[in-house]
Amino acid sequence: MTPEELKALVRTVPDFPAPGILFRDITTLISHGTGLAASIGHLARMAQDAGAEAIAGMEARGFIFGAAVAAHMGLGFVPVRKPGKLPVKTIGIDYALEYGRDRLEIDPTAIPAGQRVVIIDDLIATGGTALAATELLRTAGADVTHALFVIDLPDLHGAARLRDAGLTVEALMDFPGH
Q1: Which Pfam families does the UniProt entry name for this protein (predicted)?
Q2: pLDDT digit string (tens) for the chain, length 178 residues
Q3: CA pseudo-torsion sign 94, 99, 100, 104
Q4: Cβ neighbour number for residue 173 with a 10 Å cutoff
């Protein structure tokens, strides 16, 4: 399936989570077997072109796409977790959200120094989570130069923020608005 065909599988839910927001729901894409497989194939080709040696994905929907891409490519997957979810000593980073703060953590022993890690997530909006994940992975010794997404919301400028931080950013599709 082409990215345009995949875009047609994404459901738009108006006024969620607040009035005026058009929520891009990937549930309809991931429940479509052919669409999910095609999405994984496209992302895997992009990751291969980026020279990925491992894939990292942010909790929770980044786990869906990132782990599938890693398995498709025969690579390891690095879960970037919410706090308190890993049973070993972690390193973490606090970062700003639109309305508050959050934290991400990883097991630093999961990444050999210098390993080229490509970040994959379902959606790039403001870029805060992806920027925090990039900083955290780099702190652990990863070489992070690429971030891949299923959906980009370009009006929120997250991809531009990632590019300003030195990342190459690609998405399978984009939607105007927020």
Answers
A1: Pribosyltran
A2: 999 999 999 999 999 988 999 999 999 999 999 999 999 999 999 999 999 999 999 999 999 999 999 999 999 999 999 999 999 999 999 998 767 789 999 999 999 999 999 999 999 999 999 999 999 999 999 999 999 999 999 999 999 999 999 999 999 999 987 6
A3: negative
A4: 21
User: Taking Cα atoms as reference points, which of 104, 165, 162 lies closest to residue 137?
Assistant: 104
Q: Does the annotation mark 98 as catalytic?
A: yes
Kindly state the helix (H) or strand (E) to which residue 164 belongs, with its residue range: helix 158-164
Q: Of 59, 61, 138, 163, which residue is the catalytic one?
A: 61
Catalytic choice (5, 24, 98, 105):
98
- The domain segmentation of the chain, as residue ranges, is 3-174
Residue with tokens 């025969």: 74
Q: Which two tokens stand for residue 113?
A: 């120094």
SS3 27: helix
* Chain centre to alpha carbon of residue 127: 10
Distances (CA, A) of 6 to 54, 61, 66, 173: 25, 17, 17, 8
DSSP 8-state class, residue 76: E
Q: For 101, list phi and psi in degrees, rounded to 5.
A: -135, 160
**Do 148 and 46 meet the contact criterion of CB atoms below 8 Å apart?**
yes
Asked if CATH classification 3.30.470.20 holds for the domain at 3-174, the reply, yes or no, is: no
